[in-house]
Amino acid sequence: MSRRLAYLSLGANLGERGEALREALRRLGRAEGVQIKALSPFYETRAWGKTDQPDFLNAAACIETELQPLELLHLCQGIELALGRERHEHWGARTIDIDLLHIPGVSSGSEELRLPHPYLTRRAFVLVPLADVAPEDVIEGKTVREWRDALLAEESRAGGAPQVRPGAELSEPYPLQLIACIDEGRGLGREGQLLLHLQEDMDFFRQKTWNQIVIMGRRTLESLPGGRPLAGRGNIVLSRTLTPGAAAGLTVCRDLPALWRVLGELHLQEPERQCFVIGGGEVYRLLLPYAGEAWLTEIPGRYAADTFLPELQGFALAEKKWGAACCFCRYKRVL
To answer: Please, which residues have CB within 8 angstroms of residue 15's CB and are 6 or more apart in sequence?
Structure first.
């Protein structure tokens, strides 16, 4: 069956907006016949049409799909409903909104679906993110970039604060990587300590995480030498009991929304830094749904572990390399 590109606009202004957008993208990416090809950053935008409501978080996505336009529309509407979208008023506040904007070479004027979207060229919150993923696509005689630049110039002449600005939220559906050392039973540790101390694993861990961001739980922090943050890395601890500012070079996040905000701010400052989850077991379990890759050092035998790595559902082995006493494996998410 032939596949085609399609462009979507996503927005939310109720609840945890960033997580609503990421979950919508995860569901789109897992849908049969859909593959996400490109994603814009998230943008903070003022409400359009009905302005007495909270600011939105918006993004644009380019997907490749074998679905027919109406099938794709119904998929998007089904995801909206599953995530709590209720349509009480036109242009009103919403937990999630997914609009089908444009399918190159396809037009539709039916009551159920109009393509291109009738407001596409009039909304900065659509054009700015769309220009990140499809700047040269031509819509109604102009490229997306030209429509965006013309609308932003018009807003600039009118004065006032920008209607669209970069959001401090990670936009990737799977922004994290896991890194761990496990035995044949997926054991991670015993009594708060590693099962084994292999120098080649330590060297691999240091090489992968150096100058990156590491995310851990309180017990993992306490297991580090002196209970101190790892040198040469940005250290984040997920903990409801640890006091913020407990140690120099350490950021404490009490919940996932706080983690996403911190990571988003760090990403705006240094977008090239990667985020590694380094333990312990509960933190791996909590953050596995947000991981796109997992780097596992697999050691032969079983070592009476009391903490275990959860199964990597939806991952496939992408790379495998033997060391002297262990095997280094890279797993990539396929769903």
So the answer is: 84, 95
